[in-house]
Amino acid sequence: MLTTSLHEDARLRPARLTPDIHRFVEAHRAHGHRHAALDPLGVSRPLDARGLSLQRFGLSPADALTPDGTPWLGARDARELDQRLKAAYCGPLALDASAVRDDARRAWLQAQMEAVPVPVPPGTGLLDRLIRVQAWEHHLARRFPHAKRFSLEGCEALLPLLDALLERAASHGVGEVFMGMPHRGRVNVLVNLLGLPAAEAMGYLDPQARDPEQHLDLVYHLGGRRRIATRHGEIGLTLAHNPSHLQSVYPVVAGMARASQARHGDRHAMAIVMHGDAAFAGQGVVMETLALTQKHGYSTGGLVHVIINNQLGFTEPNAMDAQAARYCTDVTRMVDAPVLRVNAEAPEQLLRAAQIALAYRAQFGADIVIDLIGYRRLGHSEHDVPALTSPGVYPLAELKPSVVEVHAAALVAAGIASEAELASHIAAGRAAAIEAFSGKAPSGSTPADPALRAAAAPSRAAWSRERLQAAVTAMTTLPAGFQLHPVIHTLVQKWSHAALDDASRVDWCFAENMAYASLLDAGTDVRVSGLDVRRGTFMHRQAVWHNQAATGPGTFTPLQQIDAGGARFDVVNSVLSEEAVLGFEYGYSVQDAGRGLTIWEAQFGDFVNGAQVYVDQYISAGEAKWGCRSALALLLPHGYEGVGPEHSNAFLGRFLQLCGGDNLRVACPSTSAQWFHLLRRQALDEQPKPLVAMTPKAVLYGESASHSTVGELLSGGFEPVLDDAECVDASRVTRVLVCSGKLYYDLHCARVAQGLADVAIVRLEQLYPFPQAGLRAVLQRYPQLRDLVWAQEETRNQGAWAFVRDDLAEACPPGVALREVSRAVTAAGAVSSQAVHHRQQQALVERALG
Questions:
Q1: What is the per-residue burial (b if ≥16 Cβ within 10 Å, else e) of 777-816?
Q2: Which of 123, 633, 656, 660 could form a disulfide with 803 if both were Cys (CB 3.0 to 4.6 A apart)?
């Protein structure tokens, strides 16, 4: 049981209380946390205690609680009730349920607070844990006084809180916990919870460290993985890596937990996310992720949030305000999350906070917050001079007894041991901890994190026409009473016809759906996420069909009809967000690396700008910094069509600037067969890498010349370079145009119209890694080549030219001149007038053809 009842009638309905007693009880339930002394430094003042006094409610100590004098909550009169309510709601552990609108949830929480807590295990176990946590900080300060480590001093209670949360998670049958956290205290957590050898951690801080080249990121950005023993069995623990963008890891961790749940069941995994108070209140990705994780396809069954609350943001005060009821946790009101506020100098309350939090999650599948209120003893970092900006706070912090001393005093008061005995115990514990931390680094290299190793690659066998026909049949066999929209009815007819003939030409919608079907058929999971991805911005996917009849099933998902032996197909429309969703899918892809295809599609390519942190810090650099493999595919609709700057440009050049060390795959497919093969390659590649695909918009989707035959889908593979299949006599060619994407079709049509036999058009379908050997081989087919022209429809400053220029020059045969044709440099990019666009496009094509 979580709690023990104070009295057999503890759940007596408040309606049986006298009216004044009832108001007294409800005032404590609603506002008790505002009267609690939660700030260890006493800077943030609670409300005046007289606001919850008996006199304030017209009561006297001897007043009865009920009309017939029946006790309630174990109290016989108002005086005893006052004591119990103050202990339940105004102590070092307080409940703020003001955001909880559901009566049943609020009553459940109140019952936990009003019940007798399970006693804290006797002895010095908690003290010993605090001693070790504190000793680590002191040891680092002595060894490396000038190193930046983001000390946990002032909030050492975080570690025993995490211990308690893991213990309770295991008791609820959770097998795996994913954690995210900011810098503060991370090194302590790595050493004292994740088991990172102390010598290895100190190597990152040591300016004389051996092999510093092995340190690919700062130690307070690193994560890790470990199996943790609990009384309820082992539990897996993963701490996600996190760059300096503090809250960015929140959706990443949520995505990792969701991926584990998708593979092992919803009860298997959960997420614990730690936050700094100022960043939690200030960064928009928090709100986005709170909203996102309430949605089907993104829910993790409730996250446990832990605020490492120092009431400061760098140097700016961020104090809680009991007078105005304003707190750093107020953003969670949008998801009705209750908040358990804990004074970090009352570590004996941590077990109870963890019990309530995990039981609430298990009961309601919802988020809950533990606001651990401490302070920063040393300022923002060890280089800081905190008294410069907080002269009223830091003298108090310097004089404050540590939590070890405070808890030891509580043990003395409880009669556990004498003051002298505990002083000796603390000294011995510190000495033992420091001796352990001073041990030599383990020999040999650190074993690779098993989470970072890619799983065995699925079968890469080509798909047969028989399997394609079977897939189309399964995908178009409707449940009884399901009425198709005319658009989908036409689509079904096209699919059924195409499956019968290898010569049938198929559009991008068919190619994409068949790529997923082939992967599912081979046992590979597929997940597609983003704005309107079920239908597709350009009605290009149609992954979910809606019943047009008033009765019968509401929707039908064709790809979920593939008999795939357990392979899973998820296609989920996200909230109207890019940042949180892309972070979520990155985390999902890392956890699922080598076992499935994870896709995020932007509504328009430039919308990825709102998620730039994940592109720069995670997707492009995560493997190099942390060893995190990801095969996440970013689908970014791209192409100038005269619809304005904001719906045209996926900023291809920006992604190419991030390329290096074989970190990404950047592609711009121009046919439906290439699209089919690119998606399959991304899922089946034995070396998973993120893919950035410049995908079509309306014009290219509708370009009939880009529609390949079924036979082209069922043979071959993705080709990084496409030679000119329309060139009749290569010996006559003196000019080769190299381009990507839909521009090819404008160039080809103009060449045909002008009857130019001396011009060939080569398509660069993959821009990174640059297919140097493939392009050279193609150019060798043209012995009379004199001019090599790179043509792009983007402006010169926003396309691929700056990146491909050197590679094209290297591929040029001797004596061949290299030129570039593009739109003129502008700050905004594409124009918003189709008339102007067409004039610009015609002029660009004419210059390219010469």
A1: ebbebbeebebbbbbbbbbbebbbbebbeebbeebbeeeb
A2: 656
Q: Provide the pairing of β-strand 759-764 with 368-373.
A: unpaired
pLDDT in tens, 735-750: 999 999 999 999 999 9
- The enclosing H or E element of 774 equals helix 772-779
Report field, pTM of the whole predicted structure over 0.70: yes
User: Residue 155 CB: number of other CB atoms within 10 A?
Assistant: 26
432 contacts: CB under 8 Å, gap ≥ 6: none
Look at the block and give the residue holding tokens 């720069």.
Answer: 616
Give the model confidence (pLDDT) of 393-429 as tens digits.
878 888 899 999 999 999 999 999 999 999 999 999 9
How far is the C-alpha of 847 from the C-alpha of 843, rounded, in Å?
Answer: 6
CA 826, distance to chain mean position in Å, is 35
- Alpha-carbon separation of residue 16 from 22, 69, 663 (angstroms): 9, 10, 68
How many other C-beta atoms lie within 10 A of the C-beta of residue 637?
26
Give the whole-angstrom CA distance, residue 795 versus residue 823. Answer: 4
Q: Are 310 and 154 in contact (CB under 8 A)?
A: yes
> Position of tokens 């010569």?
503
Which DSSP string corresponds to 707-768? PEEHHHHSSS---SEE--TT-S-GGG--EEEEE-TTHHHHHHHHHHHHT-TTEEEEEE-EEE
Q: How far is CA 7 from the centre of its chain?
A: 45
CB 566 within 8 A of CB 660: no
List strand residue ranges (DSSP E) for 491-536, in order: 505-506, 525-530
Do residues 703 and 671 lie in contact, with contact meaning Cβ atoms separated by under 8 Å?
A: no
**End-to-end CA gap in the chain:** 82
* 276 alpha carbon, distance to own chain's centre: 17
Q: Which residues contact 96 (CB under 8 A, 6 or more apart)?
A: 33, 327, 329, 338, 339, 340, 341
Contact 637, 602 (CB under 8 A): yes
Tell me which amino acid residue 204 is: Y
